[in-house]
Give the backbone structure.
Amino acid sequence: MNVTRIRNKPRFGAYKAPMLLVVLSLVPVLGGLARLHDLGGGGPITEDNARFVAAPAPILIHIFAATAYSLLGAFQFSRGLRIRWPAWHRIAGRILWVCGLLSALTGMWMTMAYAIPASLQGPLLYGVRLTVGIAMTAALALGLRSILRRNIAGHEAWMIRAYALGQGAGTQVLLMLPLILIMGDFPGLKRDIMMTAAWVLNAVIAEGIIRRRRPASSRGARPG
């Protein structure tokens, strides 16, 4: 029994990837909290937040859903944690699947319904945001179908893809903040390209992780 406990106890390495993802999420999460403060009447109404004050429902749902999805979802990708607490992984997975779906749907809702200034969203970013929302929704649906069919490898791959798309805001901050600090703000097409590049980068990294983990995942998909 003691040997089993030692083997099942996750080492520090099991937490490294989740903690890195949590750090990546911090700035967008703090931005969401600041937006909640504005909606609560704690700040002036400006061109940047007027649309949210006029129609707060989608942004409120998006903030809560995306925050849970990015922070708690990070720990779903640790093999050590899944082995030690499989029940938690299943229960949290159901909740986070809903959060991910709400995040994707409200993202598309805001893109289409809000009158976003051209300096913050041009035609390129408009199309990319809708494409990302559709792709994330499809990845979540395919991930659910895979786990219902007990295809562990497929489920893991689609959940990685969905999470990578959902983490676009974190990577956008990582890419754009240093340039803004050096060069100042760059609205318009340059902004659209940089934000699009973040999603592309996340998608490329996700596919690399899936390819690297595929042999082990394939063994997990076979009947025991």
